[in-house]
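Weekly modeling sync, notes
Attendees: AB, CL, MP (scribe)

Item 1: holo prediction request
CL wants a bound-state model with 9-methylguanine before deciding which constructs to order. AB pointed out that an apo prediction alone won't tell us much about the pocket. Agreed to run with the ligand included and paste results into these notes for async review.

Input as submitted:
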Amino acid sequence: MGVVNITPDSFSDGGRYFARDAAIAHARELAAEGADIIDLGGESTRPGAAPVAEEEELARVLPVLEGLGDLCVSVDTRRPAVMAAVLGAGASMINDVQALGAPGAYDAVRESKCAVCLMHMKGEPATMQREPHYDDVVGEVKAFLRGRVAAAEAAGIARERLVIDPGFGFGKTAAHNLTLLKRLDQFADLQVPLLAGLSRKSTIGKLTGRPMGERLAGSLAMALLGLQGGATILRVHEVKETRDVIAVWQAVKAA
Ligand code: 9MG
């Protein structure tokens, strides 16, 4: 899954793809490099980010989505009205960092055949990194995701449409993120495909001392660990290099 942020304040690429044409060109480049899914986001979820108005989010995402009709596009949104609009415009997946927690979210996705990523987040992007606490981070994130999968199924969204994600960096310290990554295999018994988004995140910065633009090696190491832990979708900024990691990992597995 290749990331295309259509935001002026995105934490990882500083809004370079805010302009429609640049966003479309970047998405096509990521697809050519081997991304199976393009994840479009019109609202930054970086720690401390302020929410944007719904109309603004739609004005950012829809023109780009419309220019990518031939690709498998996921839209990263928490808003039911945005979900309904992008599904009407051809999106194949909803990537919801709030795990369909907003009132009306189930109704927005139910009738579509789209896939849905249910992600764990403790708190809200604006405040989530203020001393997050868990007694048992793996147990608590897993219990949350189990509950959201059950709730989505009860709301009429078939299990086959669901993907789960522990939400690295969303209300988690570096220690929490590392524990989740080390024990990622423990999510397998939820029996739902697992997505991991680790690319360029602050934990890599903490471990390596590198700024955002210099986290490729750390991101690739994280991608490999994600694969080993059972992730089958990697949400990444650098697709070409991540494809190489996948090729090496698959060859070793098959040897
Ligand atoms: C939108 N977004 C930013 N980071 C993410 C992550 O780790 N997972 C998912 N599903 N979405 C993310």
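Recorded for review: The two ends are 26 Å apart (CA to CA).
Action items: CL to compare against the apo run; MP to circulate these notes.
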